[in-house]
Amino acid sequence: MIPLREIACARSGDKGNSANVAVFGRTPAAYAWLREHLTAKIVEEYFRPLGVGTVVRYDVPNLEALNFVLPHVLGGGGSRSLRIDAQGKTLGMALLEMPVDADVRAKT
Amino acid sequence: MLMKIANAAAFWGDQPDAATRLLAAAPELDFLTLDYLAEVSLSIMAIVRAQDPQAGYARDFVDVVRSLVPFYQRGGKTRIVTNAGGLDPEACGRAVRGALSAAGLRNLKVAIVSGDDVLPRLVAGLAEPGPGSATPAAAFANLETGESLATIADRLMTANAYLGAQPIAEALRGGADIVITGRVADPSLTVGPCLAHFGWPADAFDRIAGATVAGHLLECGTQACGGFSTDWLELPNAADIGFPIAEVAEDGSCVITKAPGTGGAVTLQTVKEQLLYEIGDPATYLSPDATVSFLTLRLEQLGADRVRVSGASGGPPPPTYKVSATYRDGYKAHGQLTLFGHDAVKKARHAGQAMLERLAAHGCVFRETLVECLGTGASVRGIASRMSDTHLVETVLRVSVAADAREPVERFTREIAPLVTCGPQGVTGYATGRPKVLPIFGYWPCLIARAAVQPAWRMLG
User: Fold this and answer.
1) pTM higher than the cut 0.90
2) Are B245 and B339 in a shared domain?
3) Which of A56, B73, B97, B327 makes the best surface tag, with the fewest CB within 10 Å?
4) Assigned domain for B68 exists
5) CB contact under 8 A, A79 and B400
6) Interface contact B230-A80, CB threshold 8 A
C-alpha cells in the first residue's frame, strides 16, 4: 500500500462545525483515478471516528479536484471544540495518509 | 486598465509588518485589503468592549496605519479597505483619523461602513414571534442545526450581517483613502474596489463573480502563495512567503502574483488549493454580491509566480444576507504537560484521567472533558491511531474541560501543575503557568432578509 499523498494534494478548512477537504490529482490520470475510487462513502467511513455526518462530494473537473463537505466533524467547531484541531486544519493531511493500492502509482 | 489589489492580513494576529513590507516592494498597488474577522472574532471584541468601551475593534489596524505613515508621507497612493472596524467601525475610524492627524496626514480621508449590526433585529424578532411579524424568530433558525433562535435568546452576544461590496464602492467613489467596515463578506473587500475602479453596473454578475473569486483568493493572505499548501516543504524561502497580489482586468479576470523578491510560489497548485479553501458547493458560492460558479474557471500559468484566473460565471446574489451571531456558551480551559520516558503515552493517559477523577471527587461537574496525547495522531484520533504508540518515549498530555459555570473550569486550571510532583517521573514543560479560563462563544449562523438591513457609509470629519 502507498499513502494517497503520492498521487494527490489536499486542502482542508472549516465552516462552523463542518469542514471541507478538497483533493487534487497530481496528474490527469491521478484525478481520473480519484474520481472513480475516492467516493463520498469511503471518505465518510475514513472520518467516522471524528463523528462526521453524511459526506457530500462535489466534482470540480476544471480544477482536477474533488471537494468533500464533512458535516459535524469538528467536535463543536471554532470556539467550542475541546480538540487540539478545532478548525479542521489537519483533515487534508489526514486524508492524504489514506492507504491505497501500490499499483495505483504505476497507473497514475 | 488593470487594477492592482493585494492583501496584507488574513486574520486578527497576522504578521504585523506585512503591509509596510508589501508596499515597500509594490508601492504601485491601487488597493490593499486587510481582513481581521473570523467567525467568532466579534464575540471576542464584545468581551473586550465590556471592559473598555473603546475596544470594540481590531486595534492592530491602527498600528498598521501608523507603520504606513512614511509611505503616505512619501506620496503613496494605495487605498486601504479593511473590516478592522469589528463591532465599532466609528471608534476604529476615529483612532485611525487621530493617528493620521498626529502624523500631519490630514488630507487622507477615512470612511466607515455601518449597518451590519442586526442584533436589534434579532431581538425584535424574538419579541414578536407570531405569524405576520416581519422578523419572526423562526426566520433566524440556525443554518447548521435548524434550532430556533429562542433556545439561546437570553445568551445572544452579537449578530452581524455579512454586508456586500456596494457601500465600500460608494465610499471609495466618494473619495475615501481608507474604508473601515464591520462585518462584510471577505471577498467584498476586493469586490468593492473593483466596482469603484471599473464602474461595473450592479448586474454585471460575471465580472462581479470574477472579482469575488479574486477576493476569495486574496482573503487568506499568504495561503495563495504557498502558505498552508500540501507541498510547503518544497517552497523557496518559506521564511518570507509573499502576500498575494491580484491584477484584476476590466472583464473580471485576474492574474494572481506576489511582490518580487518574496518567498513562496504562485503556481496552479497553490491557486487551486486556495480556490477550494472553506468552500461548499463549487457551483453555487454564495456572496452578497453574486452567486458564483467555480466550475467554469480556467487557470493558466503565465510565467513564474503568475497565474491567470478567468472564466468565472455569476448570477444574482441570494435574497438574504448571511448573519453570523454569537452567544455565551459556558467556559473551557486546556492544560498541557510534556512527558518523557518509557510507556510515555500510557502514563500520560493515566495521569490525565487521574486528574479528572480528582476534580470529580472535589465535586466539579463538567459537560465535556477530553484527554489527548499529542504525538500519537491525536489531532485525528481514531484515524491515525492505527499507528502503534507504544514505542513513543515522549508525548504532550493535553487535558481539556468545558462547563456551563466558570468555577469548575477555574479549579481545573489549578490541577495541572501538581502533576509535576504527584504524576509520573519525567513530567516537564510546566513553566508557562496556569492555563487561562476561556469563554466559549457559540456560533449561530442564520439568514436575514436584505430589506431588513440598511448598509450605510459616511466620511469621518
Assistant:
1) yes
2) no
3) B73
4) yes
5) no
6) no
